[in-house]
Design a protein that fits this description.
By secondary structure, this protein is an alpha+beta fold. The chain has eleven helices and four strands.
Length: 245
């Protein structure tokens, strides 16, 4: 494998960082690498809030579920799906803009995710570790208030960046045959492949915790599907102008 593929397959979430700061030049290089990601119709429907204010970082860490690495990392970013800039540009160019379409929400969210992953790969290529923070959506209204996000902009997730102070193992992924399907969605093998993966994850968790964690992938999924996960998101998005028409 070439170094790029090796780097991609060695990704780990880093939750403990050294005190070393990322040089500003390197930081901006990572962001420019993010801008080079694919974007639907060149809309570039994203904005990044680089949270520098320590008090705001502390508040965001608390809102995200008490994740201390939001405060401890060298840099913390909040990635926002942004349809404000592009729709206003089209209006200034003379368009009668239609806002609130579901496709606009999808485009902005996908553009944001693609851009963030480019930043992640660029950062890891320079020895920087990272952790995505989906907990930003625990209370997106308060996050929006702290970051002064206008209508048609919503916070999708955060990202901690910094130099790793830990060396976790790479977490296994599902067998390729479970997610790569030829021509049609065929799931006749899925049950056996998931059972195989459950065994893999049980071994992984036991090794990582010295035998104190005995669980599987399927067991870990249960809390996600036995309660209504972040039911506030629909009303929040509607309130932000993403009407999903």
């Amino acid at each position: 494998m070439n170094p790029t593929i090796e780097r991609l397959q060695s990704h780990r979430s880093i939750r403990k960082f050294t005190d070393q700061k990322i040089p500003r030049e390197a930081f901006e290089t990572f962001i420019r690498a993010g801008q080079s990601a694919a974007t639907s119709n060149h809309v570039q429907a994203y904005s990044i809030i680089h949270v520098v204010n320590p008090e705001n970082r502390r508040k965001l860490a608390e809102l995200a579920g008490g994740q201390a690495y939001v405060v401890d990392s060298s840099d913390f970013l909040v990635f926002c799906a942004d349809m404000k800039r592009s729709t206003e540009a089209a209006e200034r160019a003379g368009a009668e803009v239609i806002r609130g379409m579901t496709e606009q929400l999808l485009v902005a969210s996908i553009d944001t995710a693609l851009m963030a992953q480019n930043i992640a790969v660029a950062a890891e290529s320079e020895g920087v570790g990272l952790c995505y923070i989906g907990g930003i959506r625990n209370d997106p209204a308060q996050v929006s208030e702290i970051l002064r996000l206008p209508e048609h902009v919503y916070p999708v997730f955060g990202m901690c960046l910094g130099y790793p102070d830990q060396n976790p193992e790479v977490k296994p992924r599902l067998p390729l045959a479970a997610i790569l399907k030829e021509d049609y969605y065929l799931d006749h093998q899925d049950q056996s492949l998931v059972a195989e993966f459950d065994n893999t994850m049980r071994t992984y968790y036991a090794a990582r915790t010295g035998g104190t964690k005995d669980t599987t992938w399927s067991e870990q999924l249960k809390p996600l599907f036995t309660s209504k996960l972040r039911p506030h998101m629909r009303e929040f998005l509607l309130g932000k102008g993403f009407e999903m028409k």
